[in-house]
């Protein structure tokens, strides 16, 4: 007796949910189809009824992540420097990155640095551009509201966004690879301080003290 369309849809959803969890925690190369199907509580053979390859599943998982990430929802929040720093600090929550959670495009950047797989590189670029556009939109709006100490010139904003992403992704990538919690926190705190300086904001901030990286990583 063939499975119903509803049953197939639910099986696909379970596979996708398991893939998002594993890929966001470990990256493309370290996750196998077998691990995904085990987490989904489905047989290995059922995988190919829904996806042609691991690359196809990864593509679907990243697309889902980009569309439903917490970071994407955060960018629609209040227009304030404090809110922007909260968005950035969310990306530093290393313990959350290592537990079950709703990942964002930043997890692709953290996990796939240097990956040579053509499909993964394409998705890495998409995640980078999504994060960069998100930051640019927020900075332009804050600049027009005179909440930043520089004019909302598009070239300046684009350069600031690149620098923020470079500092953010680099700091998290290094911190995730270090065993010592103290040095991890030093790196994250230094990166947050650097980003606030890029925005022309003191650690105390003009709108209340933003969350420190040490709290974000607790």
Automatic annotation (TrEMBL):
**One example GO MF annotation:** DNA binding
Question: At the top level of its lineage, which domain of life is listed?
Answer: Bacteria
Q: One of this protein's Pfam families, by short name?
A: TetR_N
Q: Which residues cross the membrane?
A: none
Q: Does the keyword DNA-binding apply?
A: yes
* Annotated PROSITE patterns: HTH_TETR_1 (PS01081), HTH_TETR_2 (PS50977)
Q: Where is the HTH tetR-type domain?
A: 9-69
DNA-binding stretch(es), residue numbering of this chain: 32-51
Q: Which Gene3D superfamilies does the record match to this protein?
A: Homeodomain-like, Tetracycline Repressor, domain 2
Arranged from A to Z, the UniProt key words for this protein are:
DNA-binding, Transcription, Transcription regulation
- Kindly give the PANTHER family that the UniProt entry links to this protein: TRANSCRIPTIONAL REGULATORY PROTEIN
Q: What is this protein called?
A: TetR/AcrR family transcriptional regulator
Organism of this sequence: Bisbaumannia pacifica
